[in-house]
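[[Encoded backbone]]
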Amino acid sequence: VQLQASGGGLVQAGGSLRLSCAASGGTFSRYFLAWFRQAPGKEREFVASISRKGYTTVYTDSVKGRFTISRDNDKGTVYLLMNTLKPEDTALYYCAATTRDPITRSPYEYDYWGQGTLVTVSS
């Protein structure tokens, strides 16, 4: 499956953005999906993941209550709605997919990656 992320940009602290990741070339509903992020000079970090039908979601503690991951299997797209953004959310955001069960936070368990979309939050 190929993944194409979009929706990044420059936003002021407290603002919102919605990232999208469109998939092609595979059966979308087979995949667990996740968002990761990588800030300059830091390792890639798990942000959120969602199960195949969207019933189960997992978030890293720093984004709980602010970010929401969702998916539309008919459109083959996964979303990340980010509210109350903070400067520390600034990073390159990647979507990723895996068929491995159960949901995992490890980037090494994800086989397919989008190209990344940059989110910059100004203070």
